[in-house]
């Protein structure tokens, strides 16, 4: 099932000479982990704002869980959870009070002035999620006394109270330390497994998208690439074995005799695609002084792509 469907989406701002989004199309399947990447000004924020019903489109078709974002905006909002780039918590309230106000605004429960007076279903859900996230001990403390990582986790609890079909994560780990980032991702991955939640991620930490199902790059208002991380790395970059030896001449001659393409930079670089590094190394007799296997990351592929497109502009 297609959980997010976008067909020929166009957004033209008033007085702008060209559309910010120019006929964008992509699909996100149910339960998929989807990354939406792009440089500043590429149309990424505009697209996300339209998908989350906070900005009107100019034209095109957009549905979330089968609901049209304009004609059935209320049903769309019931199906999505959003963690914004900038925190949207009331620091003067307790963590639980932030959750309670959010749940009541969503129409999930009638408002009660205290946690004790709320329905058992609400109280059980809050404490269950607080336990999973790891903030059960601080759930009744003021938000202003919570660390940035805890506040991020609180936002996740709030966004999951209504068990959304789609979770939008807009720069979810910005400003968090490495330990908090890892903890947050462990929890999000657990949520995906437990609830089958579709996750739509935007991030400047490209390594966070390394294990997504599909990565989509938007640039200059248009979709530039949409595929798995492995396909993107394979199409843009080559895997390489970096070698060197005291007898460099002997090594290069041996590589030539074996029919292995190589080039000389600081060291000798042997690209490989359809064979393994072990197959290359095992055929060499020259004693090596340098051996490095370079596996390109998604960030390498992304930067390479953006540099090429900017250079061609």
UniProtKB/TrEMBL annotation:
This is Putative ABC transport system ATP-binding protein. InterPro entries: AAA+_ATPase (IPR003593), ABC_transporter-like_ATP-bd (IPR003439), ABC_transporter-like_CS (IPR017871), ABC_transporter_ATP-binding (IPR050763), P-loop_NTPase (IPR027417). Gene3D superfamilies: P-loop containing nucleotide triphosphate hydrolases. It comes from Acetobacterium woodii (strain ATCC 29683 / DSM 1030 / JCM 2381 / KCTC 1655 / WB1). It comes from the Bacteria. GO terms for molecular function: ATP binding; ATP hydrolysis activity. Keywords: ATP-binding, Nucleotide-binding, Transport. The keyword Transport applies. Residues 4-245 form the ABC transporter domain. Belongs to the ABC transporter superfamily.
